Amino acid sequence: MPLYSKQYLNDLKHLHGRTDRPRGFGGKVKPLGAFYTYFDKWKPASALDYGCGKAAILNHLSVKYPNCNWVGYDPAVDEYKHVPQQIFDCVFSNDVLEHIEPECLHDVLDHIWLLSTKYIWLCIDTLPARKVLMDGRNAHLILEGKDWWQDILQKRDGKIVYIELGKKGKLYVAIER
Question: I need a labelling partner for 28 at 20 to 30 A (CA). Which of 16, 53, 124, 147 fits?
């Protein structure tokens, strides 16, 4: 199951390593919409931050929810590049899916579903990024709206219990399995 191409992984490593944007790609805590409401309701014992980048949100959530065992995964960051060999009550993925190569999207979604036993929280940006890849493409490789994402996600195991398109183009999705 290819989650990314070697060339794209190199592009992501380059973006993560840019010294002019040290807080980019997981280097700062962003608004998380209704995530806290669902996480407080779900009370998972374990959670994976899928595509954690530099882990600012992962570290924030680890402090905010100390009773949950938080793990990070991001293939473009050496510290988090190893695919977890366990499953989690919850998979959290914030501003990741829009960066996935379109031909790898279904494999990445399969991977997220494989790693989650109970809950999935997704935040997907539906607008172009300010960042560009080395080849000039927008860093958001998938630019689709709420209906497109909902159609793909509702075909999978689980129930979408919350889906909201925010003012700044962020699509928030809570799934219970």
Answer: 147
